[in-house]
């Protein structure tokens, strides 16, 4: 072939411009290649056999035609010879399923014409398969296509993690031939070996949702040390599963395997990224494929959880939500619940608000699932007091959200509220808010259910603000209000006592131990400044507490009047019916009212100070 030989394509046809008419036509899918038989036969044993067989068949048919046409007239012999010569000069070959399609065959044809081809990690697998189909072996011709691609694989692709991943991605549409030639298996082994030598501590979840993608070309920028994890998410489920199995076979660090699985799930399982708006893929996977992929990923997850981050927990919740929608196996759901329970403190309220997809449950949210996850967390929490406090706040927020559900029964609300141990909540203000919302949204429940729901509260853990609100809350049962008032009065009494103690100790400078020199002077100045600030704060707090105490006294007096009225009513009933109405009425209210119980004639702040000043005056006299 001359140096001026060139190849070009016109529409759906491809021509080799050598100045000679083509004698071989090759159809590859929708592309027609007009080539010459001698360059092709010199490199490809397969094309040599096809062309030779076609020529032999044509010669045999031509001899038969001459025998049958002995009586043809002499004037038609010239025309027949011309047609035979034209047919003999053209060979038609068809490859309906050529590996890599027309683009790969074009490169193989250029190689046959001794034109330069550019090998890369994205086309070497298809060219290796093309060499196998065309039988372009080293035995048939020296330095043939198979040997050229094999050298590139061993010397370039398999030496680089990025190149190996890129080549493995190109193997998806070359099955099963690429398995036969061993390209996919060698890429998988290369990736596993190189990943096993990495430090798992270098892998971390990106803070933002979108991570720049790192291509296999060495001249492009990378997105951190774990760029290859994002590249693996582009593999087909079949190849990805084979890679995970190979990693497990090499006893690869389980943290790396878990990271690979979670990132793949985040990209390919629908419903995980609820807040991220992305374009839908042109071919949406079926529910059966999604369910199979989900169960495969969950099965391959390590038993221990390594990815302790809010992003990982969000992915686990997304997988669990999808498992409920697709009705995945119970083992799959249970595994995900255990995974979430092991790092429940990383979850958010939005994660917990999973809709209920069961026909057996009428609640809006899947409360039973959250209860099971909480139980898993409590089994493994051990001495993680900080995590327990975080989960306590999370559950209280969840109770406030689900309390508005009209179908949430008091039993389910109560069971979830008391599932946490007592030391999980520093204060019960969040729980009180949930109880208040529930009672307000379920005004039709019985008095017994109201008392059961409010029974989850520990009035000793309510802050002064919560006690004040609860004491004025008409929706709470009477027993709960009385308990709140009692503990509110105790809190006020302790607060006032502490304030008065601080004010009494504030201005007394005579009891300080004397010092010497400049240090004593500086110390006295600091103490005086601190005492003045403490005195002002104490006075202000004392005024606030005095107002609160007065309002408290008013409310207690009102309750005393109600108790007195009820006592008189009970005495009248006892006179009329001596058979025990007192016990039934007492049982209905849950407590026995006595006048001394409601007695709250405690000395006020003013009276206390008057008494103190009087005692001081007597001592001085």
TrEMBL record:
All residue ranges annotated as the BTB domain in the record: 22-121
InterPro entries, A to Z: BTB/POZ_dom, NPH3/RPT2-like, NPH3_dom, SKP1/BTB/POZ_sf
Pathway connected to this protein: Protein modification; protein ubiquitination
Alphabetical UniProt keywords: Coiled coil, Ubl conjugation pathway
Gene3D superfamilies, per the entry: Potassium Channel Kv1.1, Chain A
Coiled-coil ranges (or none): 549-576
Taxonomy, superkingdom: Eukaryota
NPH3 domain boundaries: 226-491
Protein family: Belongs to the NPH3 family.
Listed name of the protein: Uncharacterized protein
Lineage summary: Eukaryota, Viridiplantae, Streptophyta, Embryophyta, Tracheophyta
